[in-house]
């Protein structure tokens, strides 16, 4: 695939950073191939050169993309409503956020909780990027009163949630877990096949060909073939494409969910988990006419489908198969409450009342327009309302 020259040209320092990562990847491949999962993990999470690991990512209107907390504080208001329901149900007193990004959600959550008199005992952030962790700490320390900031704590692995883990933070007491746009950025395996025909599966690996990386087909592993057997009989035979199709799957998700369940089930209290992301059912994610999968890249608010452009400088994501994720979660031990659209979830909280109150008290037309636009982006089907989904899980203490 030729490079996309329509994308903006990075600054010289960013080019040097990307070239250093390319050299690292070429050395790691030793003249052979890399799995796409290893490539994706490195370009996103390498602590020195990765997109998230090094803090290259920029959030918000002036950055690479805008997440729900940056669009409107009403998104977080819905989560605070859920937190109040969790507390009324007697769950643990801690909140845990996976991958806090810019820190906007944590900031809005704690400020809203203070107004509603339901501040959690602790607000823990599991952040694997040292650069983003430092950025979050700086922002939240400057924006929050000292008493609220004192309730914050940072972790860098799921294992640190365990009782007696080597960390300065007390173990997680249960309560609420928030994961906003986490699953879509987890490394995936890329493959092609004639849908439903296991003997045609080929893994799509990464090879350095000349000046840039590209795809290389390889025999599928037994593990990948076994994983895809679940989908083999779910394709409508009358609408299958004539040629092989490409798709992605997260092979590490079962073990990741099992580790998360193991940690949370050891907490003193029960926990409700909320996973927000874009995706759908298995039939939607692996639709027969989706011949090139759901792999998408984002660079300075421009979306494209070439993961080999500017390694370390752009985001790489895939759609989340919520149906399969729920099934894996149940197998790991979680109770699955269900999945629905972001719009249906928000409209089922007190956010509509909050929106009405904000519009009523807006100081001027410009302010009311901003409030209305943010709410629209969260709930309209043409915006985030239907494309983004939320899966809720529950775990009780073991």
CATH topology: Rossmann fold
Counting structural domains, the number is 1
Average residue pLDDT = 92
Main beta-sheet annotation: 8 strands, mixed
Q: Please give the CATH class.
A: Alpha Beta
> What is the C-alpha radius of gyration, as a whole number of Å?
22 Å
Summarize the structure.
41% of the residues are buried.
Relevant terms:
398 residues; alpha/beta; Rossmann fold; eight-stranded mixed β-sheet; five-stranded antiparallel β-sheet; 14 helices; globular
Give a description of the structure:
This protein has 398 residues and is α/β, with parallel strands linked by helices. The protein has one domain: 3-Layer(aba) Sandwich (Rossmann fold). 37% of the residues lie in helices and 21% in strands. It has 14 helices and 16 strands. The strands form three sheets. Strands 2, 3, 4, 5, 10, 14, 15 and 16 form an eight-stranded mixed beta sheet that branches. α4 crosses α5, α9 crosses α11 and α13 packs antiparallel against α14. It starts with 11 loop residues before the first helix and ends with a strand. The model has no long low-confidence stretch (mean pLDDT 92).
SSE blueprint and pairings:
Layout: H1 12-29, E1 33-34, H2 36-45, H3 68-71, H4 73-88, E2 94-98, H5 104-116, E3 122-126, H6 130-143, H7 146-149, E4 152-155, E5 175-180, E6 189-193, E7 202-209, E8 212-219, H8 222-232, E9 245-249, H9 253-264, E10 271-280, H10 282-285, E11 296-299, E12 302-304, E13 315-317, E14 320-321, H11 322-332, E15 335-341, H12 342-347, H13 351-361, H14 365-379, E16 388-395
Parallel strand pairs: 2-3, 2-5, 3-4, 5-10, 10-14
Antiparallel strand pairs: 1-7, 6-7, 6-9, 7-8, 10-16, 11-12, 11-13, 15-16
Helix pairs in contact: 4-5, 9-11, 13-14
């Amino acid at each position: 695939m030729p490079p996309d020259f329509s994308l903006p040209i990075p600054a010289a320092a960013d080019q040097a950073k990307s070239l250093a990562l390319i050299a690292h990847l070429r050395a790691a491949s030793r003249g052979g191939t890399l799995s796409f999962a290893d490539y994706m993990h490195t370009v996103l999470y390498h602590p020195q050169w990765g997109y998230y690991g090094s803090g290259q990512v920029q959030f918000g209107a002036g950055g690479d993309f805008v997440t729900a907390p940056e669009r409107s504080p009403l998104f977080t208001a819905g989560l605070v409503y859920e937190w109040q329901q969790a507390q009324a149900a007697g769950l643990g007193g801690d909140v845990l956020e996976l991958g806090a990004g810019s820190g906007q959600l944590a900031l809005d959550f704690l400020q809203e909780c203070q107004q509603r008199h339901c501040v959690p005992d602790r607000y823990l952030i599991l952040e694997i990027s040292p650069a983003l962790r430092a950025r979050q700490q700086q922002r939240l320390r400057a924006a929050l009163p000292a008493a609220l900031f004192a309730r914050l704590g940072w972790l860098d692995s799921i294992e640190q949630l365990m009782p007696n883990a080597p960390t300065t933070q007390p173990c997680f007491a249960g309560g609420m877990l928030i994961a906003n746009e986490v699953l879509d950025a987890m490394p995936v395996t890329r493959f092609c096949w004639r849908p439903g025909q296991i003997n045609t599966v080929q893994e799509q690996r990464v090879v350095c060909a000349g000046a840039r990386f590209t795809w290389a087909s390889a025999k599928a592993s037994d593990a990948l073939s076994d994983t895809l057997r679940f989908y083999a009989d779910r394709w409508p035979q009358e609408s299958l494409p004539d040629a092989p199709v490409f798709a992605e799957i997260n092979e590490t998700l079962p073990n990741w969910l099992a580790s998360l369940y193991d940690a949370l089930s050891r907490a003193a209290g029960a926990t409700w988990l909320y996973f927000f992301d874009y995706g759908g059912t298995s039939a939607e994610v692996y639709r027969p006419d989706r011949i090139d999968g759901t792999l998408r890249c984002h660079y300075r608010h421009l979306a494209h489908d070439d993961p080999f452009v500017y390694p370390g400088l752009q985001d790489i994501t895939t759609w989340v198969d919520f149906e399969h994720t729920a099934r894996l979660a149940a197998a790991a031990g979680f109770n699955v409450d269900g999945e629905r659209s972001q719009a249906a979830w928000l409209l089922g909280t007190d956010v509509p009342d909050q929106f009405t109150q904000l519009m009523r008290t807006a100081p001027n037309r410009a302010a009311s327009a901003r409030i209305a636009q943010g709410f629209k982006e969260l709930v309209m089907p043409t915006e985030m309302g239907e494309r983004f989904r939320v899966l809720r899980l529950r775990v009780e203490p073991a």
